[in-house]
Design a protein that fits this description.
Order of helices and strands: HHHHHEHEHEHEEHEEHEEHHH
CATH superfamily of the largest domain: Vaccinia Virus protein VP39
Structural class: alpha/beta
Largest sheet: 4 strands, parallel
Helix content: 40-55%
Radius of gyration: 22 Å
Number of domains: 2
Shape: elongated
Strand content: 5-15%
CATH class of the largest domain: Alpha Beta
CATH topology of the largest domain: Rossmann fold
Number of helices: 13
Distance between the termini: 35 Å
Length: about 325
Amino acid sequence: MTFLLGRAEVERFRELVSRRLGLHFDDGKLDFLGDVLRKRLGATQCPEPASYLDRLGAARAELRAVAQQLTVSETYFFRNADHQRAFVETAVRDRMRARAAQRHLRILSAGCASGEEAYTLAILLRDCVPELEGWNVELRGIDVNPAMIAKAQRARYSAWSLRQTPPEVRDRWFRPAGGEYELVEPVRAMAAFEERNLIEDDASFWRAGAFDVVFCRNVVMYFAPEVVQRRRRGGRKQSAAGPHPRPPGPNRSLGSAAAGTLRRGAPGAAQTADGVPRRPGRAAPPSRPAHEQRRSRRGNAGLPAAARARRAQRRRALRHGPLQRARRRPPRRGGA
């Protein structure tokens, strides 16, 4: 069946998508939205666009199906190594000092897609932060696309998803599984995933101090402007991230579940939970007391033997860890 849609119907669909999912599409995406609307009319066997649109606002299951059509799922392991280095060298160290008494860290991958980002963070913590041994570390991934959440929970990925993963890291943390690669249980158990529409208010989820680090790169910019303003007026202490709008055409990598430690600031500014700005892609040195900075300038001379050993272990992990190896590998031509 062919559905003839007028501009008014497509614009109404756009308004519903903006209001219920928070996604903003400009006039240049109207044709794409029209295609998605036709697909959903056919899938639901609803002959009248007006009737479908009347029901869409309150139909949670159909909104989930629309979200699958409109959000990007393209991502891969060890994407944006500079941001992950800032996470390992700066953000985690800062929060470990702040949480030393509790020995408990909570990290959120917002707009996590199929889980590659969250699992990358888990691998980095295991490989590069040995001081977290004995800590309780919670990694949570959230996304509006239910199909992507199901894939993340399966924890099985194609070789293409591992295209930036160093071979030794792949061999240590993945196992071959029917033409794919499956994460080993120690990494898999570190991350939990849930479907969540991030424009819906949830005071308990977004309470102050709920997360130590939130990753949401190139996401907030795709919210409708009024959604962003509502978040700011609400005085949120943490940046909220949502789904990634999918552009029309063959290249569907407009957004990504990529890294950027965002907290308490304007979208696009990387920060840690102490509110200190961190430039995306650069690992700012952790804030330390003056006497520690002086001791650092003198080198290891003033450190106890155990502290010198820990420092050497940390340097070896960073020098030979997956971030350095991923950075040395040139990206494959044609990759996202």
